[in-house]
Amino acid sequence: MFKEILPSELNKTAFEMIGKDWMLIASGNENSLNTMTASWGGMGVMWNKNVVFAFIRPSRYTFDFVNKHDYFSCSFFDESYRKMLSYMGTHSGRDTDKIKECALTPIFSEIVNYKTEDNCLNSSEVDTKDSALSSAPSSVPFFEQANTAIICKKLYAQPMNDKFFTDEKTKEKFGGEDFHYLYIGEIIKVLKK
């Protein structure tokens, strides 16, 4: 069972969680959702809010879901899920039901109240429902097998542009036609097992 915690109670850094352990970014609803592996991103403070910075290429199927929906999640797993994370990062949900193929169980967090450092609620068990949850714009998918899930409300989306690179070596390595979009999502709920 997941327990809700404050963002400041996360016991790993963003460098570990995103860069080393990787994450699944998911968006959609119980009728249609997609997810992808990401190892680029960050966490911090923007506009006086705790936020996640996520980067998604327009060619990724998950891009369509994150653009269409107001919420997305970042799910984190222990090392035993590394093979699954690799698969999720190299296969498209357009071509296969990769969630089913990896035996992941999507669950949905209802968006009702959320914790902030200024609005501390008592930690409590989080009520999640399985895929039978009725359609509602106030829910966001994450995965039962995760050890941590961060639920985000999308605040900002912007395409990256090669004219803003200030380092030529980075531009040569990562520039091209399929630039990432930057998403800033307010952390509205952190769930931990």
Tell me about this structure.
Residues 118-137 have low confidence and may be disordered. The radius of gyration is 16 Å and the shape is globular. The protein is α+β, with helices and mostly antiparallel strands and 193 residues long. The protein is 18% helix and 37% strand. It starts with a strand and ends with a strand. It has one domain: Pnp Oxidase, Chain A, CATH 2.30.110.10. The strands form 2 sheets. Strands 1, 2, 3, 4, 5, 6, 10 and 11 form an 8-stranded antiparallel beta sheet that branches.
Summary tags:
alpha+beta, Pnp Oxidase, Chain A, 8-stranded antiparallel sheet, 11 strands
CATH architecture: Roll
Largest sheet: 8 strands, antiparallel
**CATH third-level topology:** Pnp Oxidase, Chain A
Number of E strands: 11
**Considering the protein shown, what is the CATH homologous superfamily?**
Electron Transport, Fmn-binding Protein, Chain A
Structural class: alpha+beta
Approximate shape: globular
Helix content bin: 10-25%
**Distance between the first and last residues' Cα:** 6 Å
* Average pLDDT figure: 87
Per DSSP, the total helix count is: 5
Brief characterization of the structure:
The chain is of the alpha+beta class. The protein contains 5 helices and 11 strands, in the order βαββββαβααββββαβ. Strands 1, 2, 3, 4, 5, 6, 10 and 11 form an 8-stranded antiparallel beta sheet that branches. A 3-stranded antiparallel beta sheet has the order 8-7-9, with no helix packed on it.
